[in-house]
Amino acid sequence: MTTTADRSTETSTGAPGIAHRLAEALEPFLAGPLPVRLRCWDGSEFVPPGGAASDFPLVELRSADAVRRLLWHPGELGAAQAYVTGELDVPEVDGWDLDKALTHAFAVSRERGLSGARMRPRALVEAVRAAVEIGALGKRPANPATQADVKGRLHSKLRDRSAISFHYDLSNAFYELILEKNMAYSCGYHATPEVSLEEAQVAKLDMVCRKLGLEPGMRMLDVGCGWGSLSLHAAEHFGAQVTGVTIAAEQKKFIDARIAERGLQDRVTIRLQDYRDAVPPAGQEYDAVGSLEMGEHVGQKNYPTYARVLRESVKPGGRVLVQQMSRSGKWPGGGPFIQSFIAPDMHMRPVGETVALLEAGGLEVRDVHAMREHYVLTVAGWLERFHAHREQLVAMMGEEVYRVWELYLVGGAMAFRDGRMGVDQILMVRPGGPHTLPAVRSF
Question: What keywords are assigned to this protein (predicted)?
Answer without folding.
Answer: Lipid metabolism, Methyltransferase, S-adenosyl-L-methionine, Transferase
